[in-house]
Automatic annotation (TrEMBL):
It holds the Pfam family PTH2. It is an enzyme of class 3 (hydrolase). GO terms for molecular function: peptidyl-tRNA hydrolase activity. Keywords: Hydrolase. It catalyses: an N-acyl-L-alpha-aminoacyl-tRNA + H2O = an N-acyl-L-amino acid + a tRNA + H(+). It comes from the Bacteria. This is peptidyl-tRNA hydrolase. It comes from Nocardia pulmonis. Its EC number is 3.1.1.29. InterPro entries: Pep_tRNA_hydro_II_dom_sf, PTH2.
Length: 252
């Protein structure tokens, strides 16, 4: 369905989109470090058959935006207050890896799982870092990476999240960054385009961009036809680094 074919939108959907369109964070950190807000993301990385990096990152990005547009984070939803406390503070995402029983346990914690081409990622309802569910707290944050793959041209009907290959981010760092990008893109797009995107399950493609492609994408950011993520620089990259650029399909 094209955006033009959408005639009526649910009030809850409109409210979720309006919240994303308000902007990103803005509040400072609380004095108590245990009250710092973060969205935990769990990446399913089996030891014997690890997923393709590009598919796993696409699953992570899709899970994040799907959670942000879920009715349960909307008005009077069961996740609303936890989500808004995080959304309106200094937003953080933390990616952890899981396999086997760990992955099954993570699936029991409030959140949304997405599977793309066999790659699975789960975005959890945000909360204070001092109150992380024990099943999630025990999961490792670093230590595992995935090789870069070459998935070929992206589906022309899907948004593409372009990762700055020059930064050499780990898969966990990149997962957090593409999660930022999918949120920013949803907030920047007109609500009817986001609804059309929702009919495809918020699917997106993730691709690496080399220096030449990145320069072209930066021009698109400057002219307003693409959306960029600039990292705060807490881990891996320098403050202000442009990590991901999100571009909606031309036909949208």
């Amino acid at each position: 369905m094209t955006p033009e074919a959408v005639t009526e939108l649910d009030a809850g959907f409109l409210a979720c989109h309006a919240e994303l369109a308000r902007g990103y964070g803005g509040g400072g950190d609380p004095d108590d470090p245990a009250l710092v807000q973060a969205m935990q993301m769990v990446l399913h990385i089996p030891k014997d058959e690890p997923p393709l990096r590009s598919s796993l990152l696409a699953a992570a990005a899709t899970a994040v935006v799907a959670l942000c547009m879920d009715p349960r984070v909307g008005p009077e939803g069961e996740w609303e207050q936890r989500y808004l406390t995080w959304k309106r503070s200094r937003i953080r995402k933390v990616a952890r890896r899981a396999r086997g029983a760990q992955w099954a346990a993570a699936d029991e914690v409030d959140g949304i799982t997405v599977d793309i081409e066999g790659a699975q990622a789960r975005a959890l309802v945000p909360g204070a870092v001092g109150e992380i569910d024990p099943r999630i707290r025990r999961l490792q944050i670093g230590g595992t990476d995935l090789e870069h793959d070459r998935p070929g041209p992206a589906d022309p009907d899907l948004p593409v999240l372009w990762v700055n290959a020059e930064l050499g981010m780990t898969v966990g760092k990149a997962a957090a960054q593409v999660g930022h990008a999918s949120m920013l893109l949803a907030g920047a797009l007109p609500v009817r385009q986001v609804y059309a995107w929702s009919l495809r399950g918020y699917r997106c493609a993730v691709r690496d961009a080399g220096p030449e492609q990145w320069a072209v994408l930066c021009d698109r950011v400057r002219n307003g036809s693409a959306t960029a993520v600039r990292d705060a620089g807490f881990t891996e990259v320098a403050p202000g680094s442009m990590t991901v650029i999100a571009a909606a399909p031309d036909r949208w």
